[in-house]
Amino acid sequence: MRYLKVFVLALFFVVSILFFSQNNQILAQSLVLKLDVPYIAEFRSVPLPLYLLVLGGFLFGSLLTLAYLAADKIKAAKKLRECRTRMNGLEQELNSLRTMPINDESYSSDETAKEGEDAANV
Description:
This is DUF1049 domain-containing protein. By secondary structure, the chain is mainly alpha-helical. The protein has four helices and four strands. Among the domains are: 35 residues, no CATH class; 32 residues. Helices cover 76% and strands 10% of the residues. The strands form two sheets. A two-stranded antiparallel sheet has the order 1-4. A two-stranded antiparallel ribbon has the order 2-3. A hairpin with a 3-residue loop joins strand 2 and strand 3. The longest helix has 50 residues.
């Protein structure tokens, strides 16, 4: 699985290098971004090359994905810790029940005493 991930990552880099080298003139064109908020303000950016916007979008998406995966990993680690704590508690309970002596005599004498009381009450 690790080799497959490395292969896919290397393939992605090769394809991206090909894309940027074959579209160099188009991606080098400047672009001005603007935002018109009606009745309030109008915002304009400095001229930015298109490749910078593409790389910025890719970087922003990568960081967002990283944050999502980190949050998911933290949740999974918390759940694992809770399950391990519960498992340790249950193992301790099981071990204490295994070491507890079994008294058949006390159980059978309690049962016969109850039967005697039931017979007297009838």
